[in-house]
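Entry for arabino-flavin-adenine dinucleotide complex. Fields follow.
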Amino acid sequence: MNAHRTKVCIIGAGPAGLLLAFILKTSGIDCLVVERQSRETLEKTIKAGVLEHPTIELFKQLGLGDRMMQDGAFHHGFELAFGGQRHRIDLMDLTDGKYIMVYPQHEVIKDLIAANLAAGTPIYFEAKNVMLNDISTSQPTVHFKQAETDFVITTDFIAGCDGYHGPSRQAIPADQRREFTRIYPCGWFGILCEAEPSADELIYAQSDHGFALISTRTPTVQRMYFQCDPNDDVTNWTDDQIWDALQKCVHNETGWRLKEGKVIQKNIVAMRNFVCETMQFGRLFLAGDAAHIVPPTGAKGLNLAVGDAVVLSRALIERIMHDDEEGLKHYSEMAIKRVWRGEQFSSWMTDLLHDFKGEDPIHRKFRRAQLEQIVSSRSAAASMAENYVGVPFARA
Ligand code: FAS
Ligand code: PHB
């Protein structure tokens, strides 16, 4: 048995866990990360694509922004396509100069892993059978197996950053968890394809054929999604059928079409809102998808995880370095406000852009009226833009 001691044991090497580890480590706080997947897998798993303005500014302030600023694509607006026409939402103009960046999550993960290792943060990859114990005591432990070796970590605090399916949230007694869920009757069929960009900025398309999102990854690899049955299977779709579905969703009066290419990856993303308002129990603190999930429409998932890591790191630093318990005592209520703002916007944007099978036709009329209002009213567009670029991190 390999026994180690640390101040903060972080479970999960996603954006939440790695950012929390980097901030703590560079603030002089002993911590370590326990992750079930290999570094190689983490650094090539395609997930989110959009960084909000507060996330970009934070990474720059932390010295984590070099590669992002070099390889990321700044987007000063996005388009709403409906009724055969495309309408630009000018984020810079509507938010006094704020913007977003398309910089793939797996690139963020590469940057965070490299920065943590350079700072000396121990990261235990390929950890199996991770178990949390004694989370209500002042000396909780985390057990796991790596290769054939058993480990036990004794720690002051556990940060549960292990995503929706991880063990941390489940370690909180069910009768102590306040949970909220909304399940959508559709999913997103996501592809990566070898093609040039079809447009300069993201296009969110609402049509009688369903929703589509035209995003990007690099000048030669594009990321696109179209609305699908959440129980569908990617093997049911040929490349031609995929392109036919996408072209139908963006069909417009100008004859403009998507630039097609070889589909190199397909996956179906289910869509739900989920919030566990109980983001702490004893010495366990949840951050990111471990506590909340959003439908990807508003590009909030990764950015909410970053927001939690900012609030939790500040609270842990105050407790460990200054013996001030207040931030930790109120962590959940501090973090949850920005989470609910992101949850509501993601739900609103999903309802705005998706026709749901079996819904009363009146809802399609409401949807079209809302879209027409957004593209004709500066105040309506500004409200959407303010939420899309990201609201400031929670402050005490
Ligand atoms: P993560 O899920 O990223 O990280 C949790 C980590 O914990 C993982 O590395 C996991 O391996 C590890 N872990 C789990 N169980 C463990 C255990 N038992 N022991 C140790 N480690 C364990 N968001 C968007 O905004 N836009 C998108 O387009 C988008 N697309 C997505 C596509 C997919 C396929 C998925 C799964 C998610 C997508 N998301 C998207 C949401 C995603 O970006 C999350 O919001 C973001 O990764 C949240 O970060 P974390 O909270 O760090 O959780
Ligand atoms: C992506 O590029 O993966 C992406 C962009 C915007 C979204 C969701 C996903 O709203």
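NOTE: The chain has a mean pLDDT of 97.
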